[in-house]
Amino acid sequence: MGMSIGIALSPLALDRSGNAVDAAVAQARAAAEAGVQSVWLGQTFSHDALLVAAIVGREVPGIEVGTSVVPVPGRHPLLVASQAQTAQAATGGRFTLGLGLGARELSERAFGGTFDRPATRMREFLTALRSILDTGEVDFHGETVTAAAPMPAAVAGAKPTVPVLVAAMGPQALRATGELADGTLPFLVGPDALAEHIVEPLRAAAKSADRPRPRVVALVPGVVTSDLTAARTAAEANTAFYDTIPSYQRVIALSGVDRAADLVVLGDEETVAARVADYFAAGATDVVFSQTDLTTPEDQRRTWALLGELQRAG
């Protein structure tokens, strides 16, 4: 598994553009030209990240596309499997499905119901999803998920099997991810905490389940910039939400900092390159920079150029 560097596109930035899909394609083309290997799309309540990823992968040859991440609440394994396989067929095998538990407050407000037993729901969701992706069939009846396809659920051309990553950070979610998924997508975790609290338990779970060594896609907020004052102010505003979510509070504390903004990588090319190296040394197989639009378009171009150089240097 070689070193891979990518960028995450901001859902909010896409929605502020004239056309979210056109903007995603244009940004992915620019990222590919800069030399990065992958582009990731987050899911909010506006455009559909899976659909946009399929279009981007179709329009931009060679680049890997993925979701970072699609929350499980409000979704069903049969429908997500259908979307993911369709994206895989559309991109000729360059799609990766990233899933997450979602935030309790947002999920309950949007979909109703309760956010009970999220780790159990993720395990059952993955079990059903894995069956569909691997065999084209499913007959799963769990405590929180039922998935029984009355006819074949495979999508022609969706080969190889869609890789599934989970934004898992707690022990139970990591165990389920190691046993049932292909890797993880941690966000706002420092390199040392990544090595000890994500990579180590994930690899152990995968090994015990006789699964291949998992992929670790470290999502890292950061930007190459000369204006550190403005960048820190923007970082504080853009990450404050995560300071309110218990799962993020835990990994932020384990990373040895007080708040999410302290994990945003800011500085010149040398500073950012050193931090990228730290994440790979900690066990990341991929480093994906998010929030590269924190400051100015010029800073974003500098950031993508640096990441492309690091990718080419390998």
Automatic annotation (TrEMBL):
Q: Which domain of life is it from?
A: Bacteria
Residue ranges occupied by any Luciferase-like domain in the UniProt entry = 17-285
Mind telling me which Gene3D superfamilies this protein's record contains? Luciferase-like domain (3.20.20.30)
Q: Pfam families this protein is in?
A: Bac_luciferase
Kindly list the GO molecular function terms attached to this UniProt entry.
oxidoreductase activity, acting on paired donors, with incorporation or reduction of molecular oxygen
Known PANTHER family for this protein?
CONSERVED HYPOTHETICAL ALANINE AND PROLINE-RICH PROTEIN, PTHR43244
Name of the protein in its database record:
F420-dependent oxidoreductase-like protein
**What is this organism's lineage?**
Bacteria, Bacillati, Actinomycetota, Actinomycetes, Mycobacteriales
